[in-house]
């Protein structure tokens, strides 16, 4: 049998101390029995330790004090798990020669086991007195059993709370480490991609033959998609840790300029897809322009990837005091079936894909999370020939 450590015993004493009604129970035990000492004892295969006491006769035991296990009746109760009630030791043939009453000068004794919900024996609720007492009564024993069950229930709750608190602390530490990892990962991944992107842009400004120009544009397209994937992965990981999409309203450029930069990147990366643009942003909308650009990039990339090859993608962005901000992206393509529509904004949901459309299926999910962070939403309409995604946020909504 595994022995209980000192740390575990101290934990049990502290657990009893956390139960606010213990002192009331011990006081009530003395009142209903007329006895002068009551206690909650932790009883193991090696120890008898007082967890809480009510001493009105100067017995001399307080919380944390220990009796030699073999000198107690509780040692026997731990083995048979039955209550022991003695009115008058000297006149009780079963107990008058027992060593415990002789050692401690007892004439009356009552003790009931405290059994936890998992069946483990915790200890006893007991009372003693040097004088006889009329305690062999059903209502007294029933009350003791009720108190013992109440103590066991509270111990289970205290233990569950301790486990939950320890688990929360562990999760908080893990979350902090993972947040640090995400931050380092983002930095280490973005740096080489940015270097590749800058290098290929410099190449494109120079003179190149048709073959090298085509290769440079392939690299440029790959870096654009890689940047988007990195952003989506990091945002997804961060969101799953509970921090969600964070917004920063200190924008270095106006929204129209930011959106046009996104379109320029896609026109360079996918020159075979015409992008028709209509912008009428005539009112300042409180928004994180970098996040709006990320949302817009995900919608535009989705439209180009899933649209009919060579067919134009239509982009319209407008804002006003009455309608707020509205950005729509429309492409020609196969209609989206109802089942796919239901799961379109869930992570890793991609619907039907063609060769060259590979991805993690996080783009639309991240876009919807950015919309929610702005107290907005993304709507999708799919007809026989066109698919339209519309992002809306109300005026000064955040």
UniProtKB/TrEMBL annotation:
It catalyses: ATP + protein L-histidine = ADP + protein N-phospho-L-histidine. It comes from the Bacteria. Its EC number is 2.7.13.3. Keywords: ATP-binding, Kinase, Nucleotide-binding, Transferase, Two-component regulatory system. SMART domains: GAF, HATPase_c, HisKA. The keyword Kinase applies. CDD domains: HisKA. The keyword Magnesium does not apply. One of its GO terms (biological process) is osmosensory signaling via phosphorelay pathway. Residues 184-397 form the Histidine kinase domain. This is histidine kinase.
